[in-house]
Amino acid sequence: MANEELNSGNPKVDIEYRRRKSAEEMRYQVVSFAMMIFLTFVAFIAVGYDISGWFTIPFILVLAIIQVGFQLYYFMHMSHKGHEAPALFLYSGVFVAFITLLAFVTIIWW
Amino acid sequence: MKADEKFTYETWPAAPEKQTLDGKNKFLGFWLFLGGETVLFATLFATYLALKDRVPNSDHYLAKDLFEIPLVFVMTMLLLTSSLTSVYAMYHMKNFNFKKMQLWLGITVLLGLAFLGFEVYEFNHYVHEYHHTFTSSAFGTAFYTLVGFHGAHVAFGLAWIITLMVRNAKRGLDLYTAPKFYVASLYWHFIDVVWVFIFTVVYLMGMVG
């Protein structure tokens, strides 16, 4: 457990350390949020300016994937220790999701 | 460590959501559920992409006629901000500040309600102005199933968070309630993850054509 590693025997030291740790963590969260807002703006502007769809569609998809990365790794703490099993579950889901999407957009036609 | 042990700021563990076996199991099980949710939404996205703009005749409106940037933008900002406010709530949970956690969860709920209000307005607008309904075309069915399923997740998440807040208002934080709040906040973030793909794939790609 992360907590047990922190126990130095002196509770004051531990609390000071944790306070600093969580303040630092919060800064990362706010930076993530700013990045996510920025990526959203860029995506909406790219569509608003009506550049060629061949450029816009892959571009906004990449922005969405980066934004979801921030959400997963910072907001949902996947960058922390002890998230190996969650990563396995999530990426297994993503793998099946990818195959499903690939099938539906390529081998289905009308 | 017992689940109902009383804590102070000094004795509160750094990772309270994973201190007990119950908490560890909730955490693991919930991520497994999110993996399953990923697949569930992928099937809905795949169906939507296969059926996008598939309408029986030219009287029906297509994606590029329906969607408008301002409404989607406001909804996106509301949900994205609510994701940050639930991060703040968990920050206060880890600092054993129950009141502030409740406050930020309350703000999260209000933002979620505003989002849902806009979605109701949006669907109502499509149905009455454009006759774009669940049964009007394959496109309509795929659209309302995907976006409606997400909206239902938002509604469920709101009910969940409100229930936790009310039920534990007097009990406060301990190792029994902390995993519950933590898992609910994970769910709320996941709703935003799905929305990022909805606003990109459904709305923005729909407007591009």
UniProtKB/TrEMBL annotation, chain A:
Protein name (Swiss-Prot/TrEMBL): Cytochrome c oxidase subunit IVB
Recorded topology in the membrane: Multi-pass membrane protein
Listed transmembrane segments: 28-49, 55-76, 88-109
Subcellular location: Cell membrane
One Pfam family per UniProt: COX4_pro
Taxonomic placement: Bacteria, Bacillati, Bacillota, Bacilli, Bacillales
Record key words, sorted: Cell membrane, Membrane, Transmembrane, Transmembrane helix
Chief location: membrane
The keyword tRNA processing is annotated on this UniProt entry: no
Annotated organism of origin: Cytobacillus stercorigallinarum
InterPro entries: Cyt_c_oxidase_su4_bacillaceae, Cyt_c_oxidase_su4_prok
Automatic annotation (TrEMBL), chain B:
Topological category with respect to the lipid bilayer: Multi-pass membrane protein
Protein name in the entry: Cytochrome (Ubi)quinol oxidase subunit III
Record Gene3D superfamilies: Cytochrome c oxidase, subunit III, four-helix bundle (1.20.120.80)
Domain of life assignment: Bacteria
Pfam families in the record: COX3 (PF00510)
SUPFAM superfamilies attached to this UniProt entry: Cytochrome c oxidase subunit III-like
Annotated keywords: Cell membrane, Membrane, Transmembrane, Transmembrane helix
Compartments where found: Cell membrane
